[in-house]
Amino acid sequence: MPRQRRVSDDDLLEKAISVFWRKGYAETSIRDLTDATGLSAPSLYHRFKDKDGLFVQVLRQYAHQGLDERLTRLSAKEDPLSAIREFLGEMVVMTLSDAERRGCLLVNTVLDGAEMSNEARTIVQERLNEVEQFFAKRLEAALEKGQLRPEADIDAASAALIGTVFAIRVMGRLDTPLERFHALVEHVMVGLPTPTLMGRTQSSQSSHSSG
């Protein structure tokens, strides 16, 4: 009798991501997971220890797929403020392209009041912190390039940007029209402490007159 092919962990995690993302940690049962993955409960326990062990791996996989490539690519952009705008724009596109209106698994987990392991919560916190650090580093680069005023509060601005990420993802679970997302992104970008037009003009005139 031929041996049954072992399903890869990646395949199992993809199926489990869909369940946790749709139902949330608290409402996802072992039965939901066995139905989605095709594995028995003992097999799931053997491979992932328990529901929380599986959820931890799901969070790692989800964050890797959703963040790693994007953060690396946008961190390499020459224009740091453009990188921030592009990050938010891509998030809007992802949010609206999801017909199920599931939002973001990481953000949903923050809002989920369910009891879960410290490891799961730590993963969520660390990955969201990476996004905020991306904003902070891009803002610091913009400050060095003269795209922000010298007195710019980087911590406050990066906090406002990560707050915008939360807003986009939560609004995405509602029937929010595209123009509302665009208005939100434009509002936070315009609110960044960039030099005034007059200040740039005076600086440019001063540069020309000294040349």
Automatic annotation (TrEMBL):
<dbReference type="InterPro" id="IPR011075">
    <property type="entry name" value="TetR_C"/>
</dbReference>
<dbReference type="GO" id="GO:0003677">
    <property type="term" value="F:DNA binding"/>
</dbReference>
<protein>
    <submittedName>
        <fullName>TetR family transcriptional regulator</fullName>
    </submittedName>
</protein>
<keyword id="KW-0804">Transcription</keyword>
<feature type="DNA-binding region" description="H-T-H motif">
    <location>
        <begin position="29"/>
        <end position="48"/>
    </location>
</feature>
<dbReference type="Pfam" id="PF16925">
    <property type="entry name" value="TetR_C_13"/>
</dbReference>
<dbReference type="InterPro" id="IPR009057">
    <property type="entry name" value="Homeodomain-like_sf"/>
</dbReference>
<feature type="domain" description="HTH tetR-type">
    <location>
        <begin position="6"/>
        <end position="66"/>
    </location>
</feature>
<keyword id="KW-0238">DNA-binding</keyword>
<dbReference type="InterPro" id="IPR001647">
    <property type="entry name" value="HTH_TetR"/>
</dbReference>
<keyword id="KW-0805">Transcription regulation</keyword>
<dbReference type="InterPro" id="IPR023772">
    <property type="entry name" value="DNA-bd_HTH_TetR-type_CS"/>
</dbReference>
<dbReference type="Pfam" id="PF00440">
    <property type="entry name" value="TetR_N"/>
</dbReference>
<dbReference type="InterPro" id="IPR036271">
    <property type="entry name" value="Tet_transcr_reg_TetR-rel_C_sf"/>
</dbReference>
